[in-house]
Design brief:
- The protein is mostly helical and 237 residues long.
- It is built from ten helices and no strands.
- Helix 1 crosses helix 2, helix 2 packs across helix 5 and helix 2 crosses helix 6.
- The two termini are 17 Å apart.
């Protein structure tokens, strides 16, 4: 498998994890998105509101991507004091296990990661009511950057997966994919598109997304070490 294929695998895993995240936490993120849209463009037409929302979403995705890259860079240093090949193999298997767990959680076969959201519920509620108002004179992009730092159980899980991904490029790609995966549902929630939300929450969609995440988890665990080394610029011997 080539470096390009590995990058695509990281991005695909992030997209699926992001879409899975939107199935259970869209209520809070949708509320924040709607609040930002109404506050930062209160008297604008639909086109301006869409532009405001997309800029805020861009800021959120930038925050995710930067966090993923930074954490993955830190994670790649963990094995420096050990045998690099074996240590990175362990990290890779743990990362794959996290991805499989996310898939099992989506399918309802493992404890839901939504429980972690309770830790940050008050912060989320406060942000939904105040974030837009506090940045009325600022940019939707800036508001989105702040939004991307708010607590969320699925974001934590995705960041942990990125931490163990082997390097800042793959970590950033995972979180870029995660952000892109949340775009459709969060946008739909902000504009009240109930038909799309019904589809996103359907049993069939959950089975499809959860199953694909599990498959990607096993696929990432099956990639030989030498390909991971090539991606991270490490010696494979």
């Amino acid at each position: 498998m080539t470096t390009t294929a590995l990058s695509e695998l990281s991005l695909a895993g992030g997209v699926l994890a992001g879409f899975a995240s939107s199935l259970h936490c869209v209520g809070m993120c949708g509320g924040i998105a709607a609040s930002l849209t109404m506050t930062l463009s209160p008297s604008a037409g639909n086109a301006d509101r869409i532009r405001t929302l997309m800029l805020a979403q861009l800021g959120r995705i930038i925050a995710y991507t930067a966090a993923g890259a930074v954490l993955a860079a830190i994670g790649s240093q963990v094995y420096f004091g050990f045998d690099r090949g074996e240590a990175h193999q362990v990290l890779r298997w743990v990362g794959a296990s996290v991805l499989v767990y996310i898939g099992l959680s989506v399918l309802g076969w493992a404890p839901s990661l939504a429980g972690l959201d309770r830790v940050g519920q008050r912060v989320q509620a406060f942000a939904g009511a105040r974030l837009g108002g506090g940045l009325q004179a600022g940019s939707p992009l800036l508001a989105g950057l702040v939004w991307g730092l708010l607590p969320c159980g699925m974001v934590y899980a995705a960041l942990f997966y990125a931490l163990l991904s082997g390097g800042p490029v793959s970590g950033g790609l995972i979180m870029l994919g995660f952000g892109l995966g949340t775009l459709p549902a969060v946008t739909a929630a902000a504009f009240g598109m109930s038909r799309f939300m019904g589809l996103a929450r359907s049993t069939g969609t959950r089975w499809l997304v959860g199953g694909l995440i599990i498959v990607l988890g096993f696929a990432s665990a099956a990639i030989p070490w030498r390909h991971i080394a090539a991606l991270c610029g490490l010696p494979s011997g």
